[in-house]
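[agent] plan:
  1. take the single chain provided in the ticket
  2. run structure prediction with default settings
  3. attach structure tokens to the ticket
  4. add a short note for the reviewer (M.T.)
[agent] executing step 1
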Amino acid sequence: MMATSNEALLAVKLAGRVVIATGGAKSMRGLTSDELCGKPLTSFILDPAAVNEQHGFVSACIGDADGGAEHVEMTVASLDGLGADFKAFALRGARRGAQAGEPVQENQPRGFQALIQAVSEYAIFTLDAKGNISTWNAGAERIKGYSPSEIIGRPFAILYPPEARDEKLPERALETARREGRFVAVAERLRKDGTRFWASVVLTAVRSRSGSLRGFTEVTRDVTARHEAQREREELRRRFVQITAHEIRNPMAGVKGMLGLLRGRIEAGQPAPPPETLLAMMDGEVDRVADLVDRVLESYRVRDPAISFEILPHDLRDTVRTSVEPFVQGAVDRRFSVILGKDPAPVRGDFRRLGMVFQHLVANAVKYSSAGTRVGVRLDRDGELLRVVVTDEGIGIPAEDLPRVFQGFFRASNLKGRDPGGMGLGLQLCRSIVERHLGRIWIESQEGRGTRVHVALPRLEA
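[agent] step 2 finished; step 3 output follows
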């Protein structure tokens, strides 16, 4: 069965089907390595107990293409760090003529290293029983920065930050794996250059059939991006609660103040304000709260792919005109320039939601500019795209803030000491809507000299 090599390697995932086959595996069942991929492991490993083994050294019978069987020694590593139900089977054939149950040499197959080298997205390496690094794959070199010649033979504690070594965390990890079979953690690790990263770690003890500890395997994945995203989400939740409370408290304080005024005058026997005045003022404050809730809900709704948009063909000039007109009509201290062109601008899109984009961009242009300055809105054809550009001559955005302007709750650094109102969700909402329309939005700005926002959408061809 394993004539070309007495070693083979199989990586198994997805309900026991082979996803990687290397080395002597190409002779199993007379199939090539590529042909083996996708086959159930049980089609050639005849011992159910061996297939279900999680980690360690076991003996197994392998069926060959002629209906016979061969006795092999098999190293099994349950590599949880590679994803759900991912296991490695490194097989080493016994000498020809060996009988089932006959002792097989308990050396780790060299074929196991083929798996380690085959996976570059993960740092996969082995340790001896004392915790010294004995093998090192390409993924480990990429993630941690050490070449094999620099790291093999050194204690794996070198991969821990100094404070973790001071607390004996490497030794405690080995002890946990030795006692319980494995150690799992998400923690900071150290690269060769001294930088830190967040790692998902699975450290597994490897034992012989007699139960003696032979060493360890470790699978590490760099999850820094995921960890930072989680931290950002927590920060966003904190800011969401803080800003929402502030925004809701203001109109509620107005309503409470009006009620207090009414109560005070009644208790003092003074004439109360006309009911219609109080009702109008309260109604306005309640509308502010309702608008706040609507904006928050919409900012999350448009990012949910399960929420459908009402996509219909229409003229983008109508969308922009309807959105901008209220600002133009109400402008008493801004000079508006609106150029939409004479040619139709056909798009397929949600009229209402695209209108929200241009309403917000023009509102921002007014909010962050001074009386007497110019606000411009222009629609042009740009190849297969239609591009709307909204410009202002306002305070602009600092260069260091531009990469973050589309993040939720973000406030530019030059707004300190000012309260522009709102929750900082508008630009994030605009980007979500534009991207749902297969378009793109970007900003050019100079602090103190104004801002130019571009929205590009696919043009609907006749």
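[agent] step 4 note for reviewer: The longest strand covers residues 196-207.
[agent] ticket updated
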